[in-house]
Write a structure and sequence with these properties.
Strand order of the largest sheet: 9-8-10-11-7-12-13
Largest sheet: 7 strands, mixed
Structural class: alpha/beta
Strand content: 15-25%
Number of helices: 13
Number of strands: 13
């Protein structure tokens, strides 16, 4: 029995400003709105509903995999309305589908409420920039805004390797080659290998998942390209540790030297409910690799990097707590939200009480 039209549900998601639709067999459809799951009063999703949704949404070449494998990812589009990133997985032997809404319009730094210093990442000629955060923290949108800024201001060839493709870029001053894993290239490793033969200036790696991808990304940066990539880490120090931890202990010193030379900086991001109670706003930790920070990486004194970022206002750097305090001062988030999301409540309370100075972004 078919209870649901997947396109109608997606239209509803757009109308209520949802970020995701959850479509799970034997559950009612649910939306994520402003970070919270909202269950509907609609009938439960049947296996027939799921099979029909996959038939409607999955590219012909991926339908069999979506129906018969444990996991699959693919893009979908309601032409002229919205794009979607779709994940189909198994749960207790039944299919579940998570659909992320991806706007046609790539928002600007200002529209995303990103600090002005983020623009600096678009001006590097080479090296590697990492944008990090948990799933759903806005990493892809932040990178898209940086790439679109490059597109509108510089004459570059930008190659993206994604799983699946999210934002679609319209060439302006730059040109784009966008490749999807499983459709346009076999893997991130293959995509990076052949990207270097496609005369790129900038390369986007949708996600760093393993040692081989790290090695390929470092090689691309080492050969004169600017590489952007994402990781699931919370802050700059954890990001550097994660990159090195992909490698066996015997190889880490060599990789540390290579990474220190190529690392240009990182953005670590979370999305917070704004003070109005509707909509979310990004809170960031931003690091730019200065000579001192490069030295700390080489010496494996990573704990010192956090202290440098705290003192780095003149280098456009700031910690997550500094950003929370700034957003709170500007009335963009509540004190409760700031304290809920900080990793160091004592430090943030010091900022709030005025015990620290120099905390503006």
């Amino acid at each position: 029995m078919i209870n649901h039209d997947i396109n109608n549900l997606l239209q509803n998601a757009i109308e209520i400003g949802a970020s995701d639709l959850h479509f799970i067999v034997n559950e009612v459809p649910a939306f994520r709105v402003d970070g919270k799951i909202i269950k509907t009063n609609l009938p439960i999703v049947t296996e027939e509903d799921m099979a029909k949704a996959i038939e409607v949404m999955a590219p012909v070449s991926m339908r069999e995999r979506a129906l018969n494998s444990f996991d699959s990812d693919f893009p979908y589009e309601i032409e002229g309305v919205c794009r979607f990133r779709v994940n189909v997985a198994m749960s207790f032997g039944y299919h579940s589908m998570t659909v992320r809404l991806v706007s046609y319009k790539i928002p600007s730094f200002k529209e995303l409420n990103l600090p002005a210093c983020v623009e600096k990442f678009s001006h590097f000629e080479n090296g590697i920039v990492l944008v990090t955060g948990v799933a759903g923290s806005g990493k892809s949108t932040t990178i898209a805004s940086i790439l679109d800024y490059i597109n509108n201001t510089r004459n570059k060839h930008i190659v993206t390797i994604e799983d699946p493709i999210e934002y679609i870029y319209k060439s302006n001053k730059s040109i784009f080659t966008q490749r999807q894993i499983g459709i346009d290239t076999g893997s991130y490793i293959d995509g990076l290998k052949y990207a270097l033969r496609q005369d790129p200036d900038v390369i986007l790696i949708g996600e760093i998942r393993d040692m081989d991808t790290v090695q390929s990304a470092l090689h691309a940066a080492e050969t004169g390209h600017l590489v952007f990539a994402t990781l699931h880490t919370y802050n700059a120090v954890q990001t550097i540790n994660r990159i090195l931890s992909f490698f066996p202990p015997a190889e880490r010193e060599v990789v540390r030297l290579q990474f220190a030379e190529l690392f240009r900086g990182s953005i670590s991001q979370r999305l917070l409910l704004n003070a109005s109670g509707k909509g979310r706003i990004p809170a960031l930790e931003v690091l730019f690799t200065t000579p001192t920070i490069k030295d700390f990486i080489l010496k494996d004194e990573l704990d010192e990097i956090h202290k440098m970022v705290q003192k780095g206002a003149h280098d456009d750097m700031f910690t997550f707590n500094m950003c929370l305090f700034n957003l709170l001062k500007r009335g963009l988030i509540t004190k409760e939200t700031a304290l809920e999301h900080t990793d160091n409540k004592n430090e943030l309370m010091h900022y709030i009480r005025g015990a620290f100075t120099g905390t503006s972004q």
